[in-house]
Amino acid sequence: MKEQPLLFALPKGRLMEKSRDLLGSMGIDFSFDNRKLVADDKSGNYRFFLVKNSDLPTYVNHGIAGLGVCGSDVIYESGKDFYKLHTFSYGSTKMCLAGLKGSHNFGNDAALKISTKFTRFTRDYYHRHNTPVEVIKLNGSVELGPVLGLSPYIVDLVETGNTLRANNLEIIKELEDIRVHLIVNPAYYKLNYKRINKFVDDIKTGEAKWNLERRK
Ligand code: PRP
Prior knowledge:
- The chain folds into two domains: 6-91 and 179-215, D-Maltodextrin-Binding Protein, domain 2, CATH 3.40.190; 93-177, Periplasmic binding protein-like II (D-Maltodextrin-Binding Protein, domain 2).
- It has seven helices and eleven strands.
- It has helices at residues 14-25, 56-61, 72-78, 119-128, 144-148, 162-166, 186-215; strands at 6-11, 38-40, 46-51, 67-71, 83-87, 93-100, 112-116, 133-137, 153-158, 169-178, 180-184.
- The chain has a six-stranded mixed β-sheet with strand order 2-3-1-4-11-5. A five-stranded mixed β-sheet has the order 8-7-9-6-10.
- 1-O-pyrophosphono-5-O-phosphono-alpha-D-ribofuranose is lined by residues 140-143, 156-163.
- It comes from Candidatus Thalassospirochaeta sargassi.
- This is ATP phosphoribosyltransferase.
- It holds the Pfam family HisG.
């Protein structure tokens, strides 16, 4: 009897494209055509769910998806612990404090006023560093905070730095390295550990080959 497909959550956006490319190079082909959010690969061994980045830990935590591709930033904000079976070579970014170019002067601030999507990280980071903060939650385009005067500072992910540069902002401090992990629901792992371990071995080999190919 054919086994049920492995259930896999992928985050919308940049990480999905890279993940699909890597999986495709391993012969796991699927597409989310016509705005479909669920797709099986051609072999029928994998079923993929296309979810909003910040919702991914919820789907894996509830066991709706057994596996997921997720950044350490999003995992931290979820407040949940997951087994991390693999760290991907792509998607690395830095969590940074940034502000308008040349304008930062902490001495005058009673508390750092910071706009961010990453409220848990920001509060915890500055709490650990005994620095008072006032955190304003935004859901995207965080760089507008200092530009429009909502707050002098932002805590956000910086990858190429293009968004900061384009908006006359600069990094004040790099706070943490962010990596992308393959996460798994613990109960799902127990039930499917042989297949999942084989899949993780295949991902490690496949990703090394994929990186070599891309460098050619
Ligand atoms: C992320 C992040 C920055 C940008 C950084 O935003 O929040 O805005 O990418 O990338 P860069 O350093 O390469 O310019 P995302 O594209 O996820 O969109 P969002 O602002 O709507 O969250």
